[in-house]
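Why show two proteins at once? Because comparison is the fastest way to build intuition. When a single record is shown, students tend to memorize it. When two are placed side by side, the eye starts asking what differs. So, the first record is below.
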Amino acid sequence: MPSVELRSVHVEYQLLSVRDYNLKNRVVQTARRKFQEPVVIDALRTIDLDIAEGSRVGLVGPNGAGKSTLLSVMGGLLPPTRGTVRVAGRVLALLGGSGAGLDQEASGRDNVVSMGVQLGESPRDMRRRIDDITEFSGLGERILHPVYSYSSGMQTRLRFSILTSLRPDVLLLDEGLGTADAEFTARANERLNQFMSSAGILVFASHGDALLREQCDEAVWLDLGAIRQLGPIDEVLKSYHASHSREDAC
């Protein structure tokens, strides 16, 4: 049974100062034994979260709130500095830029096979899915062309089509399908609905209220790396926007 459990998860980033990026300055500082204390950023702060089978959870918050970091932790792409993460079931994540995870020099067809193999599928199974993935993505003959020749929307469509053909137990989406065209977005939403009918888990970060309401029934509001509110999607969005209205009025 798929589930996601986070306990006291904390993620810190250490940032170098601008001077540290200058090789000459670093050599001089080393010679003089002068070291600056690193700047520590708390990307996530004491996150406790349980997501059960059948949950459709939206992540809301401003840029820099920690949404992408939280998804990366759930997907096993980023280990927490402190705390524990337990995820049951097969996890697939559509994170990063439109071309993340794609071999830009290879064709779309070759990427179908290679990405599937990286995610635990056999080459034979992925080759059997090529026609369906090509049709769903709408790439047509472009599936034979190198990925570097694709627009960002085409790359998004290819990645989404590959990942959702694998039927994961836990699907993580960052910022949805904003770079894809309207027709594909409608088909993608229908596929997400089909996915949810199989009682998986969807965790979805987006700035679009309409898309969040369509795909999610719960929400987590992140603010400066901490959970500020969690609950029904409409209640969380109402609180989030009310808070921003108050801040704008100040």
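Second record. Ask yourself what differs from the first in the token line.
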Amino acid sequence: MLQYQIIPVTPFQQNCTLFWCDETKQAAVIDPGGDIDKIIQAVEENNLTLCKILLTHAHIDHAGATQDIVDRFSIPIEGPHKEDQFWIDLIPEQIELFGFSQVEKFSPDRWLDQGDRVQFGHIELEVYFCPGHTPGHIVFFHRESKLAQVGDVLFRGSVGRTDFPKGDQATLIKSIKENLLPLGDEVQFIPGHGPMGTFGEERISNPYLVLE
């Protein structure tokens, strides 16, 4: 059974998330943007073995602590899609733009794409390619739990920004409507920031989806 804990990190209160297998205690950390001590504390408090880092995209508030965790735990990085190499290359500029302290560049061990799977313990997550907020954004979905970690694609009542370089709102809305909403109204999602929601609620009431 999948268990999870949301760990808000960085001044942007980004929803870094621990996913783990209840049986084996093997875990993956999704979008470790910073505050590595908070992440390690959650791993230790739940008696977990951290096995991999999963990235929805390469904005610094989602990926800033990635290399620090690799250095500490010697685990692989999976994700995002290869198109987000663009944002990894811009980490020095992101540090200045968003006011972060020094962040190390990292190199994913495995780029992810539509239809891929990631595994830890007895948990398997499906990968959906959802560009628009960034060109290489992906989403992780656990079908049995009807739970998705959507990064900055979708929020309660809103969607991800598209005014950054290589962002595109039409592409983002298409990603949501063609990849996420068909997964089912009952699916709960963990966004990159703010409270959880369901795809059904957003399909009916999210102004960006209703008006498009």
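One difference worth noting in the second protein: The first strand starts at residue 2 and ends at 9.
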